[in-house]
Design a protein that fits this description.
Layout (H helix, E strand, L loop, with lengths): L1 H43 L15 H11 L10 H17 L9 E4 L2 E4 L8 H22 L3 H32 L4 H6 L12 H14 L11 H4 L9 H26 L17 H21 L7 H30 L2
Helix pairs in contact: 1-2, 1-9, 1-10, 2-9, 3-4, 3-9, 4-5, 5-7, 5-11, 7-9, 7-11, 9-10
Length: 344
């Protein structure tokens, strides 16, 4: 009995350490994504970007963090104060929870002890992520409504309509992958893509649909109608300041990071790469390969933001309902026919 208890305590400590490390990495990536965003924008616009806070502006995210913590924190007098305070925390919490089921590698060998690089291997990993992603809109809706500002409310309504529209096409594109792989577990989906047997070769249309929907779900340009500065000042977080605003901005970059990780895991082999053993270097090669893919897609997200102009709202709805959803249904039907007739 004591051995079982000792094993359970060791497993719990292992998971707690993994959660803390993953949380720190997620916040670090989100912080330096703001730096990367400015540098990519500067490169595309032939500017320097951040260059004063440290060498090449490398300390700019730390300066931004200090600014957020030290800015005046105010609550509008006409707002619903409890919900106004709750909303950014809820948005941040939901964004951080989605990383729990992602396999960041196979196993990491530490002091001759194998450690699984996944917080929780649940057999419904895809549904878990989709469920938490759909909850994120509540943080936006509550914040926009509780601010008692018409621009905030308009931004929240736009965000909820946009997420409802694009989650349908995203879910249908994921169904095609589930039909092909026969599992909802992200760990099994990644394991099936060993070498160059990536799902993107079998699901090119599904990948394009998922990628476009991921842009919309993250409120990234050209789908950033929820915070359209030219129309809504700042959208749903117009009335927020200090770290409440920081939570909203950080959560958006965390969502982008997780979206790129899911794309890499579901369609591009995750930690697998042809000719490389994910367990090489004591298991470090898997996470290195996965993060290389993730950073590439983060760059693509930023490239799109500073290249393509924003859609009008009617164009955004038209694309979601009249183009992406029919294409996703067609892709699902073709995948089902292929699985029945040919197998994978």
């Amino acid at each position: 009995m004591s051995l079982i208890l000792l094993f359970s305590v060791a497993l719990i400590l292992e998971k707690i350490i993994l959660i803390v490390v993953l949380f720190a990495i997620t916040l670090g990536v989100a912080a330096y994504s703001t730096y990367g965003e400015r540098k990519v924008a500067a490169f595309l616009q032939d500017r320097l970007g951040p260059s004063r806070a440290g060498p090449y502006g490398i300390l700019q995210p730390l300066a931004d963090g200090v600014k957020m913590f030290t800015k005046e924190d105010f609550i509008p007098s006409a707002s619903e104060k409890g919900l106004y305070i709750l909303a950014p925390g809820l948005f941040m919490f939901v964004a951080c929870m989605t990383s729990a089921v992602i396999p960041w590698g196979t196993q990491l060998t530490i002091f001759d002890k194998p450690v699984d690089l996944q917080v929780a291997d649940v057999n419904i990993g895809i549904l878990y992520i989709m469920g938490f992603v759909s909850l994120g809109v509540y943080g936006i809706m509550i914040g926009g409504w509780a601010s008692n500002n018409k621009y905030s409310l308009y931004g929240a309504i736009r965000a909820s309509s946009q997420m409802i529209s694009y989650e349908l096409a995203m879910g249908l594109s994921i169904i095609a992958v589930i039909m092909m792989t026969g599992t909802l577990s992200l760990k099994e989906i990644a394991a099936q893509q060993a070498g160059l047997n990536w799902n993107v070769w079998y699901q090119p249309l599904g990948f394009i649909l998922f990628f476009v929907c991921a842009l919309a779900e993250c409120n990234r340009a050209p789908f950033d109608m929820a915070e359209c500065e030219t129309e809504l000042i700042g959208g749903y977080h117009t009335e927020y300041s200090s770290m409440k605003l920081g939570f909203y901005l950080f959560a958006e970059y965390i969502n982008m990071f997780i979206s790129c990780t899911v794309i890499s895991t579901v369609y591009f082999g995750g930690y697998n790469f042809p000719g490389l053993d994910p367990g090489w270097l004591g298991g470090f090669m898997g996470p290195i390969v996965l993060f290389a893919k993730v950073f590439f897609f983060i760059f693509v997200f930023m490239w799109i933001r500073w290249t393509i102009p924003r859609f009008r709202y009617d164009q955004l709805m038209h694309l979601g309902w009249k183009s992406l959803i029919p294409l996703a249904i067609l892709n699902m039907v073709l995948t089902g026919a292929g699985v029945l007739l040919l197998g994978k």
